[in-house]
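Same chain as my last thread, 106 residues:
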Amino acid sequence: MSAAAKVSVLLVEDHALVRAGLRQVLERSPLVGTITEADTVHAALAVLAATTVDLVLLDLNLPDADGFDVLRQVQAAGLPTRVLILSIHAEPVWVRRAVQEGAAGY
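reply #2:
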């Protein structure tokens, strides 16, 4: 697979150890190209303002704001970016809200 065909990923997770583990898994995939990391909503929005990514892997519990803020920004900007939610919250209300707000998966 060519570098141009690989998926660029923004990994938004505030726990460094979890972020490192997810990065290791992603780096093993031949489908994943560039991986950018952010540990806050502010940092994630800065990355999204500066570059286009294909996929955001998004934690909902972030120290500076709700991860849904990132999801809303992606939707409002009409970006071609897909957002997948990574969360410890398994309750149907969280899943429904994420999908209703535009997440591609939970």
